[in-house]
Amino acid sequence: VAGRRVLITGVGSYLGTLLAARLESEPGFDAVVGLDTRRPREALAGTQVIHADIRDPAIGTLIARAEVDTVVHNSIVRQPGPGMSARAMHDINVMGSLQLLSACGQSPSIEAIVIRGSAGIYGAEPHAPQFFGEEMTRMFPLRTRFQRDVAEIETYFENYSRRHPEVTCTMLRYQPAIGPSLATQITRYLSQPACPTYLGFDPRIQLVHEEDALDSLVAAIRRPVRGAVNVAASGTIGLARMIRMARRPLLPIAGPLFGPITGAGRRLGLDAYSDDFRRLLRYGRGVDVARLERELGHRPRYTTAEALESWVAA
Amino acid sequence: VTDPAALAFMRRLREGLDSGLELPEALTRGAAALPREARDTVQRVLDRMEGDHDEDEWGFDEGFADLVEPFFGFLYDRWWRVKVEGAQRVPAHGRALLASNHAGILPWDATMIGLALLREHPLPRHPRFLALNWAFDLPWVSVFIRKVGGVVASPYNALRLLEQDQLVAVFPEGVKGTGKPFSERYRLQRFGRGGFVEIALRAGAPIVPVAVVGSEEIYPKLGDIPPLARAIGAPFFPVTPTFPWLGPLGVVPLPSKWRIEFCDPIATAHLGPEAANDRGLVLELSDQVRDVVQETVLRNLVQRGPAFI
To answer: Distance (Å) from the C-alpha of residue A84 to the closest C-alpha of chain B?
Structure first.
């Protein structure tokens, strides 16, 4: 029996490199192809790395030539990093995904597409159910740019899935990841001298440990299912407790002043807070992981508190 | 009822709030007037509001609920002199949905139902309750409600709680119950479209009708100021004999006499989860629950006698 041939976009990201290395070592995979403008984080002996931008129409021929059966879309940007504008982020996320899907349409060998999407599509809402199920994406208006981008990607993806019933399309909706090796908005937030919070609010936060993030991706590649699947640690934790565990002082700020004060901090060189992150700090978000456990067969090994602990200990 | 310590506490709290302090600070300052034990309690409550302790995935904090118990206990024993009947009819194990009449603007009735079970039930447990969504926009209030077992009134929350075999209290009258004028007291409002019955059917949970008498006199709502309600995003802006005239003191509920009766559970498990799609059956069950609650409310109203003495 021939093994699987997998293409990974965003192979230069932390999780992308780790995934490529993991698939190289696991049985059942014949070829791993990486696609990115960046180099992988570490040398990957068994991975063929293609240096290309997913927004480039040329990837159509590149992907067809690689003759892969599975495409893992791992280059959705969650927050603009240093030197990346919000506009560039939108461009990579929306135009990149569109281009990638059209490239997949030119490759008849493709059987499955797995997208590492975001639970940000649900938003952070005061009146939300405590745990969003996969069917609850249209409960509240899309309030931020990133939310609208993710929703657009999901719409493209659903359309693609409908037009190509022979391809199994899996949309993984990730909660913010944390772990000893990751640098994300959450870890930068918890590393500040003091953590600004909304006065009088203590939202429920749910994260996912980096190992569970990787294992869920592998589980989705091994057993692709149709539609959306939430990826998160089990359980939630209060923001105040989270900051205590990170051994940082809380800095409660009254709601109307939060924007101006953190904005001033940004001019002083502190981290910028995206609209999504601000809403998360005010209202929190939890998702239901029953489908991840039942259909992908991955039971998260870390609770949110344990995931946080592993980061604090590192 | 007129406890000098309690009055001194209220006075200091009032002074603190008037001089522009934030609520936790004002509470701390007010607590200085309380006896030592009570002062400790307030301090520990404030500590817990800051985090650093265990909560379940819903944000319910059993330690916190135990800490505030003396406060609710005071209301229960001395302020409202709650009499309870039929607590043993509430299932001791597994899922169950408590459906109660609702009045009194703030969810005091939910807290008293909870305390009634903790005090009177042979195998007490903390019930969870569905609270008006608006409360979750508010600073402190949202955190407090969550810590004592409240969740956003979403059917998904109710269903998940029941699937975890919890006791869940719902108020099917919703905001129509809390916002009704004093002249309509003890006349139950419409029970929505029977959403609570659908949830009970899906989860196979028995429905326990609960009648609360007394909650409808704690804030006699004489009027409403819709423009002010719109301005603060509230469903209504109540005018009572004490609110908003006395400022924060107007939030102190009147000391009416209360009775809470738990009625015989209505089983739903034998109907199966598919029955939730049967509109006729749902409405029929919803009416049945409403009739039981209304009847029990009226009977207890007669038994109670005068509202305040």
So the answer is: 34
Predicted pLDDT at B192: 80
Q: Which two tokens stand for residue B213?
A: 């008498």
Distance between CA atoms of A57 and A107, rounded to whole angstroms? 13
The pairing of strands B150-152 and A29-36 is: unpaired
Least confident of A15-29, A82-96, B62-76, B293-307: A82-96
Instruction: State the ipTM, two decimals.
Output: 0.85
Q: For residue B157, give the nearest of A129, A242, A243 by CB distance.
A: A129
pTM of structure = 0.85
Q: What does the pLDDT average to over B148-152?
A: 92
A227 in B contact zone (CB under 8 Å): no
Long-range contacts from A15-21, C-beta under 8 angstroms, 24+ separation: A15/A74, A15/A116, A15/A177, A15/A210, A15/A213, A15/A214, A15/A217, A16/A40, A16/A74, A16/A75, A17/A41, A17/A42, A17/A44, A18/A214, A19/A72, A19/A74, A19/A214, A19/A217, A19/A218, A20/A44, A20/A47, A21/A47
Q: Residue A130 is nearest to which of B49, B142, B152, comparing CB atoms?
A: B152
pLDDT tens per residue across span A41-84: 888 888 899 998 989 888 888 888 889 999 999 988 887 666 67
- Partners of A288 on chain B (C-beta within 8 Å) are 160
Share of chain A above pLDDT 90, in %: 66
Cα–Cα distance, B223 to A72 (Å, whole number): 61
Cα B154 to Cα A127, A130, A234, B129, distances in angstroms? 8, 9, 20, 11
- For residue B183, the cross-strand partners are none
Question: What pLDDT score was predicted for residue B1?
Answer: 43
pLDDT confidence tier of residue B18, bands split at 50, 70 and 90? confident
Pick the closest to residue A186 from A232, A137, A246 (CA basis): A246
* Helix (H), strand (E), coil (C) string for B29-62: HHHCCCCHHHHHHHHHHHHHHCCCCCCCCCCCCH
Chain A interface disruption, residue of B23, B154, B232, most A CBs within 10 A: B154
Q: How far is CA B155 from CA A234, B13, B77, B200, in A?
A: 21, 37, 33, 10
The shortest C-alpha distance from B117 to chain A (Å) reads: 25
Task: Say if the Cβ atoms of A238 and B59 lie within 8 Å.
Answer: yes
| Residue B56, both tokens | 């379940």
Query: How far is the alpha carbon of A193 from chain B, nearest alpha carbon, in Å?
Result: 18
State whether residue A130 sits within 8 Å of chain B by CB.
yes
Dihedral of alpha carbons A181, A183, A185, A189, sign: positive
